[in-house]
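Sequence of Protocadherin beta 5 (Piliocolobus tephrosceles).
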Amino acid sequence: METALAKTPQKRQVMFLAILLLLWEAGSEAVRYSIPEETESGYSVANLAKDLGLRVGELATRSARIHYKGDKELLQLDIKTGNLLLYEKLDREVMCGTTEPCILHFQLLLENPVQFYQTDLQLTDINDHSPEFPEREMLLKIPEGTQPGTVFPLKIAQDFDIGSNTVQNYTISSNSHFHVATHNRGDGRKYPELVLDKALDREERPELSLTLTALDGGAPPRSGTTTVRIVVLDNNDNAPEFLQSLYEVQVPENSPLNSLVVAVSARDLDAGAYGSVAYALFQGDEVTQPFVIDEKTGEIRLKRALDFEATPYYNVEIVATDGGGFSGKCTVAIEVMDVNDNAPELTMSTLSSPTPENAPETVVAVFSVSDPDSGDNGRMICSIQNDLPFLLKPTLKNFYTLVTQRALDRESQAEYNITITVTDLGTPRLKTEHNITVLVSDVNDNAPAFTQTSYTLFVRENNSPALHIGSVSATDRDSGTNAQVTYSLLPPQDPHLPLVSLVSINADNGHLFALRSLDYEALQEFEFRVGATDRGSPELSSEALVRVLVLDTNDNSPFVLYPLQNGSAPCTELVPRAAEPGYLVTKVVAVDGDSGQNAWLSYQLLKATEPGLFGVWAHNGEVRTARLLSERDAAKHRLVVLVKDNGEPPRSATATLHMLLVDGFSQPYLPLAEAAPAQAQADSLTVYLVVALASVSSLFLFSVLLFVAVRLCRRSRAASVGRRSVPEGPFPGHLVDVSGTGTLSQSYQYEVCLTGDSGTGEFKFLKPIIPNLLPQGAGEEIGKTAAFRNNFGLN
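Predicted 3D structure, token representation.
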């Protein structure tokens, strides 16, 4: 019997070790439940069998039980129903202290076969603790005359609850001298400060007693109080001031006892007892604090061993008080460091750089890692950035290869800065970062690309040969010789375009030059294509369209069409003396071979025999009378009209007009050059008048007969003109009817043709249809006069 009993514990130990091994290798996810603290015992947390997908009867047959560290029985399993029951009340503050969240880890153990499930129980906080001050009374010594606004630190209240259930606000009993301000500390806790609102007078009131209340944020809220006794002292002008308001210190958890943590220092500008400073722990809780401070030197030393797992950091408040009762406060933030004193090491064995683009999976680097620490502190994991086209592949023990995940594109990214991070599994984790740069070598996989698909260049006519007229530019995303671009002219699509004699291109930079002087009137625009070829293997190329527009310059002077200025007999305009002011005498017609504003013409009267008698309209060249004519005005007048274009600089031409004032159009033409006696002139006029009347009568009858013939002829001519495809111009008709007004006493018809696309009125030909009805020479001159007068609105 004793032997059997002795063997039973050994079997249990073996079984427990086996279970631990299985627990180590298992990787199932934990089932988590949550209940408030202080829940009554026997409370059903959950149906564990249902949540884990187990049959209720299976719990009994497989000896299911709940295990918690330390063999504490906090939960129990009802194997009949599968319910997980609370064995006793759980106090979150006892179980976890200030740790949040408070999670208790349990394991469900099953036998036959051995299996385990991880179960977590989270305890949520309830407001079951009231704030408590460390002392029932606080003593403050404040000199009289202290300026309002002065702040005096107060000790905080302790509340073992967490979150909103801990201390949220401080208040003080109503008084006329002080109010309390609540502030947040670095660790989330709130602390009070007493603020002086009204100066104290020791003679009036040497001592005050106030009640400080701490309120938590629970529902309903809980509170705690303490008495603040204020003793009014005589003047002490300066309070101690620490050199730093916050001291941050890191202390290894294996630091020996009595080792120096940090030395704080405060100074007081007062002299004597008021200038001497004494240091103390402000909260005065030396039982829970593992530190002690020297009241004279301010050195904080370790009096009790630190435990990182129990308390990873401390916030210690230090107060410095002078002999007059003034004090200053600082905070010392102490972080307890876990011991993991060796960082991983990385040794690079091979590094291949540059790596060609467009290549499949390529080995870039081979390296090994090591860490002299043991356990989790010596286990390592390697990683690189997630946004890189590379992969880390483990090979032999602690050896890794860095390979490309896909084909690289140098044009997208020419180099990669890769950070290999080696991290151990210690606490805290230590890591080593190794930076490498991988360059990507170029392959000629991009053709040159012009900055524009088409270019438009502007060149003024009459340019000098070899003039730089513009540039084309192409870029190649490759590098080196693969990106060197050569430019060339491509054969023109128009075989009649002498491109090689018009422009040339610099093969290196794409500059375009005009080889000869261009004439706008001969060639207004032309286009061609240029090519860009790189020097890679194989060569890649592209092309772009270049359009050259020749800009007009003012290189043509106005040309006077009417009256003709060819040195022949001058044309004389007859003006009746009875003409009203504004009477249209004639019209100067001129054209300009240029275009645009260079062809805009203006007219002005340059010279006149009698200024003020005639005027010239500036925009259309119409010559009109400026006033009424009288018998005192001379019969003969000579006008010089200046025709000027709008170019820069402007060019001009002149037209000379001869005017003859007559009493009526029945008065014959008088040669102005003769100077006959008055009686001879009267006889000659009589003869001319008779001849003119007879001629007019005859011509009128003949004109009536010809009218019908002319109308028929006009229809046949219109059809023939349509077949000849005469270009359309601004004047629709081809026959001009000249009535017997102005300087003519007969009616004539002239055929007037304008050249196509002539916005300036260039005449192709001007020919009278009935030339034999007038004397030789006179018919042509009068015909031209009548035609221009009729076409340009002189009648």
